[in-house]
Specification:
Largest sheet: 7 strands, parallel
CATH class of the largest domain: Alpha Beta
Distance between the termini: 14 Å
Number of strands: 13
Strand content: 15-25%
Order of helices and strands: EHHEEHEEHHEHEHEHEHEHEHEHEHHH
Radius of gyration: 21 Å
Number of helices: 15
Helix content: 40-55%
Shape: globular
CATH superfamily of the largest domain: Glycogen Phosphorylase B
Structural class: alpha/beta
Low-confidence stretches: none
């Protein structure tokens, strides 16, 4: 097979600590790991090795070399000429976007669409943000040679909202960071437990603390069902946290919840592996990466019915109505009190994660590249 020049919009790989950044870094690193024969170009208005250590990799970095062009203009318009001059054959927009003038670059273009939550739940977004996202995402889908959806749920949404032909879309799952693949040693577990003052047993939630994720419903279930194990929530607070705080204070259960912010990615596997289970009753997601991280960590999952959640969790999860407190409470108690059920979920999870093996996922992505 010929050597390809493959380019990426790498802004979020360099600067985004969570979702889109993790996807971008994992994708680029895995392609370089399994297909080192190709040339990889990373395009970003500026670069940093704080989150993405590219210095020991064979990447070519292209950044904005003048201080007058706005970064947004550079990514949307100027970039196409640079892609063309680098003789890029495939350009991959990793985070829902492509340059508006990508056709001028002569490269085949691929865009990954993660979710269309702003269309499915418009009330969660400001009007101006919805308009910007709608324009950028729609244009990217229309202009792309091929679209990658990270789940069948996202594929269905692209077809429904943007009227894109199904044949233009490929579903390629994402995987989690390889740090989740191995058991952490006792010293690492002890270090993380002491750093965050974690209790000996806890229920885990991972994700932004926002209304759509229904963290308050987990707390209500723990309170209503007199569950004596606290909830550890790893994620960034939003104004929704005020509702949670009011409930906790009103019910005098401040000891039932501990929020961890600013957790390093390298510490997450330990936090998962020491948990009794992950509870993730989100209303809607494009994929639900915490489910995969939990399954790789060998713990049971309680998550929502429908959507992408069963794609991620398979038989390794219990599915509940995310707004039904009783279902959440009963599911938590079932995992805590039924060892046979818990062991079964863990074993099923080990089978499920084969769908998200990094080599299989990366090979499928490369087949998409070769296909265009």
């Amino acid at each position: 097979m010929q050597t390809l020049n493959i380019g990426f919009d790498a802004k979020r790989a360099f600067f985004n600590r969570s979702g889109l950044g993790n996807y971008s870094r994992n994708t680029i690193n895995l392609l370089q790991k399994y297909f080192p024969e190709h040339n990889y170009y990373l395009y970003s208005p500026k670069s940093s090795n704080e989150l993405f250590n590219f210095e020991d990799k064979k990447f070519t970095i292209r950044t904005k070399n003048d201080k007058f062009t706005p970064s947004s203009y550079w990514r949307s318009f100027s970039l196409s000429n640079i892609i063309k001059s680098d003789n890029i054959q495939i350009f991959h927009g990793l985070s829902n976007e492509l340059p508006f003038t990508i056709s001028k670059s002569k490269a085949k273009s691929i865009v990954t669409i993660h979710d269309l939550i702003f269309l499915r739940y418009p009330e969660l977004y400001k009007n101006i943000d919805r308009k910007i996202y709608n324009y950028k995402f729609r244009k990217s889908c229309e202009n792309a040679t091929k679209i990658i959806a990270i789940s069948n749920q996202t594929k269905s949404d692209i077809i429904e909202y943007f009227k894109i032909p199904e044949t233009k879309i490929e579903v390629v799952y994402q995987t989690c960071n390889s740090s989740f693949y191995n058991k952490q040693n006792s010293a690492e577990l002890k270090s993380v437990r002491e750093k965050y003052n974690l209790p000996s047993n806890y229920i885990l939630y991972v994700g932004t603390i926002e209304k759509r994720k229904n963290l308050l419903n987990i707390i209500k279930a723990i309170n209503n069902y007199n569950i004596n194990i606290p909830l550890i929530a790893v994620g960034r607070k939003t104004k929704y946290y005020n509702e949670i705080e009011n409930y906790i204070n009103k019910n005098n259960i401040i000891n039932k919840l501990q929020i961890l912010s600013g957790v390093e990615n390298s510490e997450l596997p330990s936090i998962y592996q020491m948990a009794e289970m992950l509870v993730y009753p989100s209303t809607f997601e494009g994929f639900g990466l915490p489910i995969i991280e939990a399954l790789f960590s060998g713990i049971p999952v309680i998550t929502s019915k429908g959507g992408c959640f069963s794609e991620a969790g398979g038989e390794g999860a219990i599915y509940v109505d995310p707004i039904n407190i009783d279902e959440i409470g009963n599911a938590i108690n079932s995992v805590l009190n039924n060892k046979e059920l818990k062991d079964s979920l863990i074993e099923n999870g080990k089978l499920q994660i084969k769908n998200f093996d990094e080599k299989i996922v990366t090979q499928k992505l490369m087949r998409v590249y070769e296909g265009v």
